[in-house]
């Protein structure tokens, strides 16, 4: 039941679904949210021209936007060392030979010839191209995380600001229909003052094994710590929703399971699933994560990460000799598999964020936001439950219906919505401060990790001073 201030008995709570049947009248909140249509911006006279730096999973995905929105975006160059990826992207987008490169450095040696670059190389390869292309005055969409060290993030931010380029970070979750609606509801003030946020990032047991035990984000020295690589999105959302600077932060977390001492005895000395006596019982069997789905005809992620051309033989060979066939208890991973973060904000509000590997759900976040006049709850992207303490009503809001965003491909539609927002900023020559926002949420993530390592509460101002970070 709701706490109704000043009332001895709580009024009856009506549960109503506001969008499914057109005959049902829309609530005031839904009407308000629907009125707030995004400004229609006409497509530019000619498409915004883009070079893709790193034609892997993310670079290829962003590039696809151009195929469906030709009046807005044209991919005119690619830099990618892996031949199959480079050629596939070049052919798909009909890129002339002179603009197909093995390495971003070759592209950066030329005078600027297009409007923007999408930098989608791996985390440790963001810093150099981001600085180089900012200095060449390219607008930049840089995949998250910005970079693995605070100083690199700071320098990238300064380069983007000093060169006055449009800069977007791959915080795609900000752009999903449901997160946009959450932000609007907060901004309308119907929740009153936001006092507390609880946020859970359930990574998914097999997804964690894929990316953070066997895969590219398993080892801090090769990418970054897991709060940054997995949950910088989530800290960014909390920071955006709170809209007040974070002042103090604490954190705990460990690598609890994916290590040798947790290896089941039946697995013996096997270091690969293909050779393991325990494989059929193991929740993390590479055969069940990759080979069985490939046999059923699946070709997409995560199998597409193992091989450029998916067929049973090549997946089998990847499990025999590649990193994704390794026993999860015998890898060289060192990033934590669960972490909690507590945040205090300048306005006195608090937030907690949990990232955990051991979940059935794969990245289907759940969030509760508590304000002085109401609360929001969502588990996944399909609906948001809004409880109004004042009227005693509870509404189920359907973000897709309200926003008209039904395309849920790529992070619930966030990937393409981010690209769209970035292109619109270029077309309208608007905001040039995306970098500062992105920097601040990265700063909080670095501070949280410092708190976890040192077992202390980190004061953000002191942390900035210690790291010689001036306000930006
Ligand atoms: N926004 C999100 O939600 C999200 C999701 C997943 C990954 N990411 C981030 O996206 C980035 C890319 O991840 P991915 O899964 O696409 O990785 P990937 O390995 O599939 O792609 C990276 C590509 O960069 C290429 N590359 C390496 N050196 C290069 C060079 N010198 N010049 C040009 N290209 C070069 C690689 O060959 C590879 O094809 C990472 O930083 C990752 O953390 C973001």
Give the overall average pLDDT: 92
CATH fold-level name of the domain at 48-165: Rossmann fold
What is the CATH architecture annotation of the domain at 48-165?
3-Layer(aba) Sandwich
Spatially, the strands of the biggest sheet line up as 1-15-14-13-12-8-11-10-9-16
Determine the oligomeric state from the structure. Answer: single chain
- Low-confidence runs of at least 5 consecutive residues: 1-23
What's the total number of strands?
Answer: 16
Bound molecules: nicotinamide-adenine-dinucleotide
Strand content: 15-25%
Number of helical regions: 17
Largest sheet: 10 strands, mixed
Task: Give the end-to-end Cα distance, rounded to a whole number of Å.
Answer: 44 Å
Shape: globular
Can you characterise this structure?
By secondary structure, the protein is α/β, with parallel strands linked by helices. Among the domains are: 48-165, 3-Layer(aba) Sandwich (Rossmann fold), CATH 3.40.50; 260-325, no CATH class. Helices cover 36% and strands 18% of the residues. The chain contains 17 helices and 16 strands. The chain has helices at residues 28-35, 57-68, 83-92, 104-108, 127-135, 150-162, 177-188, 205-214, 226-242, 286-295, 303-306, 312-321, 399-403, 409-412, 414-428, 434-454, 460-466; strands at 14-17, 48-53, 73-79, 100-101, 116-119, 139-142, 167-169, 194-202, 246-254, 338-345, 350-356, 366-371, 374-379, 384-388, 393-397, 458-459. The chain has a ten-stranded mixed sheet with strand order 1-15-14-13-12-8-11-10-9-16. A hairpin with a 4-residue loop joins strand 13 (374-379) and strand 14 (384-388). The two termini are 44 Å apart. The model is unreliable at 1-23 (pLDDT under 50). Bound molecules: nicotinamide-adenine-dinucleotide. The site of nicotinamide-adenine-dinucleotide has 25 residues, from helix 2. Nicotinamide-adenine-dinucleotide binds next to helix 2.
């Amino acid at each position: 039941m709701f706490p109704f201030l000043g009332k001895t008995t709580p009024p009856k709570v009506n549960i109503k679904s506001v969008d499914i049947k057109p005959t049902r009248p829309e609530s005031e909140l839904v009407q308000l949210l629907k009125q707030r249509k995004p400004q229609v911006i006409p497509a530019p006279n000619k498409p915004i021209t883009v070079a893709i730096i790193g034609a892997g999973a993310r670079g290829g995905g962003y590039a696809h936007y151009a195929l469906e929105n030709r009046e807005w975006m044209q991919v005119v160059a690619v830099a990618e060392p892996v031949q199959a990826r480079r050629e596939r992207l070049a052919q798909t987008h009909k890129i002339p030979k002179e603009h197909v490169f093995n390495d971003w450095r070759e592209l950066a040696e030329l005078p600027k010839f297009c409007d923007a670059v999408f930098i989608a190389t791996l985390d440790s390869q963001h810093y150099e191209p981001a600085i180089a292309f900012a200095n060449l005055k390219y607008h930049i969409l840089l995949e998250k995380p910005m970079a693995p060290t605070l100083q690199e993030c700071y320098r990238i931010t300064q380069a983007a600001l000093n060169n006055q380029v449009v800069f977007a970070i791959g915080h795609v979750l900000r752009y999903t229909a449901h997160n946009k609606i959450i932000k609007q509801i907060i901004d309308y003030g119907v929740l009153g003052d936001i006092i507390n946020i609880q946020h859970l990032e359930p990574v998914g047991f097999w997804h964690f094994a894929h990316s953070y035990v066997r895969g590219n984000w398993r080892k801090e020295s090769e990418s970054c710590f897991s709060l940054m690589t997995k949950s910088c999105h989530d800290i960014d959302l909390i920071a955006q929703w709170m809209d007040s600077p974070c002042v103090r932060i604490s954190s705990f977390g460990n690598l609890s399971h994916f290590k040798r001492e947790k290896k089941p005895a039946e697995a013996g000395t096997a270091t690969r699933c293909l050779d393991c006596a325990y494989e059929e019982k193991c929740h993390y069997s590479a055969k069940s994560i990759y080979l069985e789905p490939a046999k059923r005809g699946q070709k997409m992620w995560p199998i597409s990460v193992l091989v450029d051309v998916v067929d049973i033989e090549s997946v089998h060979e990847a499990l025999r000799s590649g990193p994704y066939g390794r026993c999860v208890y015998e890898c060289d991973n060192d990033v934590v598999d669960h972490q909690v973060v507590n945040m205090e904000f300048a306005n006195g509000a608090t937030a907690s964020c949990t990232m955990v590997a051991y979940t059935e759900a794969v990245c289907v976040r759940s969030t509760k936001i508590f304000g002085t006049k109401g609360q929001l709850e969502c588990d996944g992207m399909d609906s948001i439950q809004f409880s109004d303490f004042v009227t005693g009503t509870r509404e189920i809001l359907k973000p897709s219906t309200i926003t008209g965003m039904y395309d849920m491909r790529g992070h619930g539609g966030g990937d393409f919505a981010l690209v769209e927002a970035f292109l619109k900023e270029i077309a309208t020559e608007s905001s040039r401060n995306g970098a500062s926002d992105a920097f601040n949420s990265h700063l909080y993530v670095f501070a949280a990790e410092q708190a976890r390592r040192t077992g202390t509460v980190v004061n953000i101002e002191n942390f900035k001073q210690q790291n010689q970070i001036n306000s930006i």
